[in-house]
């Protein structure tokens, strides 16, 4: 079959799927607006002090929010995971915004949240590390920094460490890695690989007929359903508002972004970055019910760093910072205290 025929076949199938998915897309949009109107009673979100857009080195716009004063002696940068957005740090943002002498910086990774849509070739962990470097250079050009990454965000932090070890010697005074892995995610057993015909078809459509992917969500249902199950919570009671927040972030992630990042997530290897993280306070945290980044991968990170504080959240799934915010915030507060003390001692 010629390439033109194959394109026509894929495009024709997508037209039908997209047409059938129009109502589903409208429903997702309605749910998204409804969720954004919710105010979780546990920890109301504080407004940003400043919202800006930082251009990545390839021009993709990254939306950044800052909470707190720019002259604060410590800045904590929160880097979210795959199919999520900066809202996934809801409880940590609330904690840090009230911490004296601390500024919070959050941003939406490329293709996620309000940030711009990248080219397929740039959907790599390597590029995400460079994006983080651009955010630091634009909004945190000086002063001590603590980097906190969840899932793909943890890989982003590790990529930056490998690319710019000098930053971790001079400015990064602490690191937290939540529910992440130094090498490929457990996507194969979920069927989320480049060989999956749904994944391969969506990647092809994103190149040949990208407009079709914006018409409906039905084509992605088969792709994200195992991801949603893998990112489900553990066995504890969960606020309905928090559950809806996570479901909405996943549903709002573009089909193209999901398909384009899967090969990078399953094939990355950042073990070379782990020695760079040694020598400063490091928190490594994971739920023992995490199916996407199992606890064994977290233990590998802690062992290779050597002096990391390993915290296990009993019964928690992949979105541990939303499911068990009290445990996570307590561990994060301890990390910040250690980081400030280490930074003060180093300057002295």
- Second rung of CATH, namely the architecture: 3-Layer(aba) Sandwich
Radius of gyration in whole Å, from Cα?
20 Å
- Quote the average pLDDT: 81
* CATH class category label: Alpha Beta
Strand order within the widest beta sheet: 1-2-4-3-5-6-7-8
Q: Label the overall shape.
A: globular
- In CATH, what is the homologous superfamily? Alpha/Beta hydrolase fold, catalytic domain
The CATH topology is Rossmann fold
Number of domains: 1
Q: Helical stretch count?
A: 15
DSSP helix fraction? 40-55%
Can you tell me the residue ranges where pLDDT is under 50 for at least 5 consecutive residues? 1-42
Strand pairing plus helix content: what structural class?
Answer: alpha/beta
N-to-C CA distance: 70 Å
Report on the biggest sheet.
Answer: 8 strands, mixed
Number of beta strands: 8
Describe the protein in words.
The protein is of the alpha/beta class. It has one domain (49-188, 222-347): Rossmann fold (3-Layer(aba) Sandwich). It is built from 15 helices and eight strands. The chain has helices at residues 3-20, 22-36, 90-97, 125-139, 152-163, 165-170, 197-208, 210-213, 218-230, 240-252, 255-267, 274-277, 295-305, 320-323, 325-347; strands at 50-55, 61-67, 74-79, 102-107, 145-150, 172-178, 282-287, 309-313. An eight-stranded mixed β-sheet has the order 1-2-4-3-5-6-7-8, with helices on both faces. Helix 1 (3-20) crosses helix 7 (197-208), helix 2 (22-36) packs across helix 10 (240-252) and helix 7 (197-208) packs across helix 11. The protein is globular, with a radius of gyration of 20 Å. The model is unreliable at 1-42 (pLDDT under 50).
């Amino acid at each position: 079959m010629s390439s033109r025929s194959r394109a026509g076949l894929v495009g024709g199938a997508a037209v039908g799927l997209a047409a059938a998915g129009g109502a589903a897309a409208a429903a997702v949009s309605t749910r998204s607006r409804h969720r954004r109107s919710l105010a979780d009673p546990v920890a109301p979100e504080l407004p940003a002090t400043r919202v800006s857009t930082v251009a990545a080195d390839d021009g993709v716009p990254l939306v950044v929010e800052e909470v707190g004063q720019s002259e604060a002696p410590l800045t904590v940068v929160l880097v979210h995971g795959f199919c999520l957005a900066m809202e996934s740090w809801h409880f940590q943002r609330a904690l840090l915004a009230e911490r004296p002498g601390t500024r919070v910086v959050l941003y939406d990774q490329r293709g996620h949240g309000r940030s711009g849509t990248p080219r397929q070739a740039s959907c790599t962990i390597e590029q995400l590390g460079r994006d983080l470097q651009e955010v630091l250079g634009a909004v945190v050009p000086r002063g001590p920094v603590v980097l906190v990454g969840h899932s793909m965000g943890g890989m982003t932090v590790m990529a930056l460490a490998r690319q710019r070890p000098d930053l971790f010697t001079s400015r990064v005074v602490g690191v937290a890695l939540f529910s992440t892995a130094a090498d490929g995610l457990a996507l194969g057993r979920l069927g989320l690989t480049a060989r999956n015909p749904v994944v391969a078809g969506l990647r092809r459509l994103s190149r040949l007929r990208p407009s079709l992917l914006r018409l409906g969500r039905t084509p992605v249902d088969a792709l994200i359903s195992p991801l949603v199950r893998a990112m489900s919570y553990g066995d504890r009671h969960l606020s309905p508002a928090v559950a809806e927040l996570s479901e909405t972030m996943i549903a709002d992630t573009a089909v193209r972004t999901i398909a384009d990042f899967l090969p990078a997530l399953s094939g990355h290897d950042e073990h070379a970055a782990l020695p760079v993280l040694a020598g400063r306070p490091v928190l490594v945290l994971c739920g023992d019910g995490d199916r996407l980044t199992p606890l064994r991968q977290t233990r590998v990170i802690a062992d290779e760093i050597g002096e990391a504080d390993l915290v296990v959240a009993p019964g928690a799934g992949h979105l541990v910072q939303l499911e068990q915010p009290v445990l996570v915030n307590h561990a994060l507060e301890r990390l910040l205290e250690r980081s400030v003390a280490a930074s003060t001692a180093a300057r002295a």
